[in-house]
Structure formats: C-alpha cells, structure tokens
Amino acid sequence: MHSIAVAGHICLDIAPLLSDQARIDPGSLVEVGPLTVTLGGSVANTGGALTSLGMNVFPYATIGDDELGRLLTEKLTEEGFSAPQLSVSPRLATSYSLVIEKEGVDRTFWHHTGANAEFTGAAVDSAQHPLLHIGYPPLLPGLLENNGDTLRHLFARARAAGVTTSLDLAVVDPDSPVGSLDWEAILHSIFGQTDIATPSLDDLTSALGIYQEYSPEGVEALAEQLITQGVAIVAISAGQHGLHLRTASEKRLREGGAVLAALPDSWADRSITVAPLPVDHPVTTNGAGDASTAGLLFGLSRGATPEQAAELAVTCSAVAMNAARPTPQAVSQLSPALASVFYDQGRKERQ
C-alpha cells in the first residue's frame, strides 16, 4: 500500500445545527441547536477519507499558535493521521470555517484563511512518499505568487524525485484577494507539473471566468484543455451530473511518477463519465468532493481499473453525503463490486 503526503489547506469546521427559523436578525436572539467542531479543509477531508479507506496519510499544513491550533492537532492524531507535520505561525490565527447548512440546502462557508496564508510547502518531504496531494490553492496565497511559481516548483521538485503529484482546486471568489489574479496563467503553469487533477466543474469555471450551463461537451472540452496543458489524469466532478474521467497517452502516464508508471496500458487515452450514486436523504454536502478525490487516489494506488477508480470516487462521495466515513465496509455496502479493490491483494501482480 502506498503512503501519501497530503498538504495545503486545513481548518476547523464549526457548524451550528440550524432550524428553519434560523436567520440573521440584528438585535434578536435566535434559538439554534448544538455545535459541532470537526476537521475541515482539503488536508483533513481528503486525508481523512484516505485514512478511512486504509492508506497511510502524512499531513502537512500551517496552523496558528492558539487554542484552535492545539485542538486541530489533537483531532488529527485522534483520527489516525501519521505524524502530522504542522508548521506554526507566530502571527496568524488557525484557520476556521463557520459552516451554515440546513438540511436539503447546499452549505455556505464563512471562512478565515488565517495561517493557511503562510503555507508554501517548503516543509513537505515529498520524496518520502510515492504520492503528493495538494489541496485548495485558491485558499493558499503563499503558493500563488508569480503566477503560482511556488506551487510549480514544489511539484517540479517532487516529480524530479519520482513522486506522483496530485492537485485539487477550490472555487475562486471573484471578490476575494485572489480573485483578481491571472488564473489562466496560474493554472497553465501548475498543470504542466501536475500528474492528477481532481477539480470540480465550479472550481474550473470560477477560476477561468467561464459562465455557462453544464453540458457533457463543455466538461469534455475542459478536461481536454487540462490534458493538453500537461495533466496525465483529469477527474472533473459535476455534482448531479456525475464524474468525468479523462486520461492522457501511455507515454504521459509512464512519466507520471511512481503511482502512474505502474498503471496498465488500459488507463491510456480513456474518457469515462460515471453517474453519481443516488442519496435519498443527504445529510451534508460538506467534504463530498474531497471524498471523491480520495476515492480516485486510493483506486490508483491499488491498481484499480479506470472504471473501478471512477466508481470508487462517486461511491466515496455518496458515503460522505450520508455523513459517514468511507471505510472499505461502507463503500462495499453501497457498491459491492468494489470489494475486490480492497480485498484482492493479488490483482496488481496478475496485471
């Protein structure tokens, strides 16, 4: 089983239980339910899902020297992360999000970037792991200077050591400090050193300033654009429209570090769209995209077929929407055919 370094954005998600009457009304006292405090951000969400699936996950991030930072560190240890490598900022507070979510309605985040602004990846010892995943560059200003040079150099250093690089994005708020950056230039620079990219459709359209209705042709065109810019495997999640998986040539996969170089020829030049699994009564959408990324990365690390990896991604997302952890048991219960990905130890030797 491969280990993975998961680095980048981390925070605490602080979520009050809201009733239908909850509102912002100055001068009023509004009754709400109990509060939950959980790990959030790409490092915790994608890393936590990978831990639940069975991978050995090493987290890298930056936190503040404060009570929230100490609580965050404790929670990482409690949830089974291996040797958290957390830099501590002496001047910025630990990042947190207020998650405003009612049942059946997509969530809203009130987010404080905090110490994430100082994350540069300088402390990431990527050569110790076959796979390096970076999450949420739009929320990591320290990686974006000079059109993303810091992130590009981090990935280039990892790839030179034979490491497979993976990138997940986040929605770019046009009214935020990073909203005015040249995202087309940033992504073009980063994708040249990215082996695996798992953005949502909203991530890409917000970064590129594309405002159009969903269409299969539009998603395919975006995936092809990323492949042309150098990415080896692209997985674009599009909510109710499912997941679109697009892969590059056999030659590009062979150049994709330890994980991709071991893939069979059947991964080359593929285009697959997988429908989402139905979730009758979703509890939350928080972390569903990160769980999808985790499913794909786990499938790749296990030598799954493209079809299995894509199915694993959408299944992990469905489990997350049920507010559950994507353990092998939970995934296999929803998609019994995926049990072989977890329990067939001989698959890679037979391929």
Give an account of the 3D structure.
This protein has a single domain (3-350), classed as Ribokinase (UDP-N-acetylmuramoyl-L-alanine:D-glutamate ligase). Helix content is 36%, strand content 19%. The chain has 13 helices and 13 strands. It has helices spanning 41-53, 67-78, 145-160, 183-191, 201-208, 216-228, 250-254, 257-261, 288-301, 306-321, 328-334, 339-343, 347-350, and strands at 3-8, 11-16, 35-40, 56-64, 85-89, 96-100, 108-112, 131-135, 164-168, 196-197, 233-237, 243-247, 271-274.
Comma- or semicolon-separated keywords:
351 residues; alpha/beta; 9-stranded mixed β-sheet; 13 strands; disordered C terminus
List the helices and strands and how they pair.
Blueprint: E1 3-8, E2 11-16, E3 35-40, H1 41-53, E4 56-64, H2 67-78, E5 85-89, E6 96-100, E7 108-112, E8 131-135, H3 145-160, E9 164-168, H4 183-191, E10 196-197, H5 201-208, H6 216-228, E11 233-237, E12 243-247, H7 250-254, H8 257-261, E13 271-274, H9 288-301, H10 306-321, H11 328-334, H12 339-343, H13 347-350
Parallel strand pairs: 1-4, 1-8, 2-6, 4-5, 8-9, 9-10, 10-11
Antiparallel strand pairs: 2-3, 6-7, 11-12, 12-13
Helix pairs in contact: 1-9, 3-4, 9-10
In short:
The protein has helices spanning 41-53, 67-78, 145-160, 183-191, 201-208, 216-228, 250-254, 257-261, 288-301, 306-321, 328-334, 339-343, 347-350; strands at 3-8, 11-16, 35-40, 56-64, 85-89, 96-100, 108-112, 131-135, 164-168, 196-197, 233-237, 243-247, 271-274. With 351 residues, the protein is of the alpha/beta class.
